[in-house]
Structures are given as C-alpha cells and as structure tokens.
C-alpha cells in the first residue's frame, strides 16, 4: 500500500543530535585520546541520592502508574507557584500553571495554542533547534531575528518590531540562551514585554536554564512583578537540568488561566501528561533540593571559568562569542570554512563532539556550540588542546 505522509514533517531537517552522533557511529576511541562529548546538554553528574531513594520507594505506590490531572499534580503546581513567586518576587498562582512532559512539549503546546498554520512566530537566530522544528511541523512561519556578535548575541527589540505583521502571534526568547549561553538583562526583557503588549502578541520566555545563572549575573527579571504580565507573558520551565532528571520529562507553562485552559485541551486531546513519577521527582526537588541545586549552579560556574581559562591560556585562535549556564558559543578561526565542516572534522580527527552553529540558524557558519557543563573541569585543557590541534 502506498500512502503520502505529512510533507511538513518530512520537510523538517534531520534531528541535530542524531546527525552529530552519526559522525562517531561505530568507532572505538583510544585510551590516550578518548571521546569528549560536549554536543548535548545533559547534566554531567548523578541525581541527588535522596531523590533516587525516594523514587525507588514511590515506584511501589499504585498511583504512580496512573494518569495525573491534565494540568498536573496539584501539590506540584502549588509548590511551583510558591517557588516562582519567591524567585521572581512576583505573584504566580497554581491556576496559572500547567505541568508538561518536558519543556519541549511545553513549547509545542504553547505554539499550537497560540498560532495556526500560516501564522508567524518571531525566533531569535541562533535559535534552539527544537523550537524551529516544532514551528516547521505545525506549518507556522519562523521570522528570524538576528542576534549579532557585536551586541553580545542579544536580540534587538527594534529589529523585532520590524518583523511583526498582522500574522505574527508571538515573540520567543530563551534566557539563559541555548545555544549561546547569553543572559538577557532585565531591561531588555522588559522592552520586549512592552513591544508584545503594544502589538497585542504573546511573549514566550523559555527559562530552562534559569537555575544556572553565571556568577555576577543581574538578578532575574521582574516580569512576573508586573500587574499586566498575564496579558502577554508565557513562561516555560524545565526541571530536567535543575534536578538532573531529563529522562522523566517534566516541564511547565506559566500563563493566564484562560490560556492554561486552552493549552490543557491540546494536552487532553493527545493524552500526554508529564509522567506521574516524574512529577513526584520534581515535587521532591522543590521541597528538598534548594541547596543541592545551588551547589550545582556553582559547579557550572566553576566549569565555565575553567573552560575560559583553558582557551585563553593557549593561542587556540578560537574566540568565545558568548557563554553562560551550560553553553559556550565559539567562533572558529577558519574563515571560509563552514561550522558544519569544522564540527565534523573535530569529531573525526580530534575525538571532540560538538555542534555546528548551522544547526541553530542559516547565518551561523562561523560558530560552534560547546555544552561544557557535560564534562569535568579536568577535561577543559584537553578540549583546548584538541581545538589547537585541528
């Protein structure tokens, strides 16, 4: 039998992580030059022992095999509301929260609830590739907002305003940013919030890495302190990195209650809620792991410092364009060569797996992303040596 698939799905580019891993498929790596994998953003440490012990016990409880409420376990929504209210010195209620199966699903649900096929959503470039893939599959146009090196890879509200037309439904921002690590200052986020309000569109802020702000970074934004935040703001969050539970797929959407109701309709239609055991893991983390989470933030800052030291202490020719949270966005010295070619050479010749900037935008030929958080700080000098040896 012959059948035609959805051309929107067929037209989506190959998933970047799978493509990068194909460069090293089937290879063995020598002991004196093992693989260094800084391609995918995963915590380079184990979860807290108290959390894993708790989950072992909870796996024996009957309710963990059942569906949860569509919007999420009430106790988790209550606790997350308290956490977000305290973190941002604002006001968030449980009715403004929906628990999702990871932050990627949170974005998918938000996009599907906001826009129809043929509508437009503004994405900064370089973009998080799963955001672009989601829009492509939904038939939503991505209007790319360039983030320039000379501006610290931060988006410009004036340039964003020029991209907005009568089919634009939202602006998407990611801070700390994936792939660049750039942290958006509060006044910049406030300017984008004002723009979204003036143009009657949503502002979607993905804050997956909010718990890993670099040392000295300005205190997080005050958007949730604004009395008008429910008019336009949609905030996305992930528990995956904060509590080292990416396999449990738990994220959240914070928005106006009427938006949460519509979003929950989409969730109910596909019957995909965050796993019950994963929601229990997130709740345990919010109740018990504040100090553990802060310790891991300090660890990431230490790794960032060691990565910087390793590159700046050698004449590698590579330049750190931006850095923060889990990521360093590096500019390679090989003018005329694409980042895709350089990344594949690093994998094949230097046993160093990273992602080319072209996986994050068509104008990113000179950049590569390094998820330095994946590796111990003792590995940082070897990364610099392998860059130099290319």
Task: Give a written overview of the molecule.
With 390 residues, the protein is α/β, with parallel strands linked by helices. It has two domains: 7-46 and 292-388, Aspartate Aminotransferase, domain 1, CATH 3.90.1150.10; 63-289, 3-Layer(aba) Sandwich (Aspartate Aminotransferase, domain 2), CATH 3.40.640.10. The chain is 39% helix and 15% strand. It has 14 helices and 13 strands. The chain has helices at residues 7-10, 16-22, 49-58, 74-88, 103-114, 129-138, 157-163, 186-198, 229-232, 257-270, 276-288, 290-312, 339-350, 380-388, and strands spanning 36-37, 97-100, 120-125, 141-146, 168-174, 202-206, 233-238, 251-254, 319-324, 327-331, 352-353, 355-356, 367-370. Strands 2-8-7-6-5-3-4 form a seven-stranded mixed β-sheet, sandwiched between helices. Helix 3 packs antiparallel against helix 11 (276-288) and helix 5 (103-114) packs parallel to helix 6 (129-138). The chain is globular. The model has no long low-confidence stretch (mean pLDDT 93).
Please specify the SSE layout and strand pairing.
Elements: H1 7-10, H2 16-22, E1 36-37, H3 49-58, H4 74-88, E2 97-100, H5 103-114, E3 120-125, H6 129-138, E4 141-146, H7 157-163, E5 168-174, H8 186-198, E6 202-206, H9 229-232, E7 233-238, E8 251-254, H10 257-270, H11 276-288, H12 290-312, E9 319-324, E10 327-331, H13 339-350, E11 352-353, E12 355-356, E13 367-370, H14 380-388
Parallel strand pairs: 1-11, 3-4, 3-5, 5-6, 6-7
Antiparallel strand pairs: 2-8, 7-8, 9-10, 10-13, 12-13
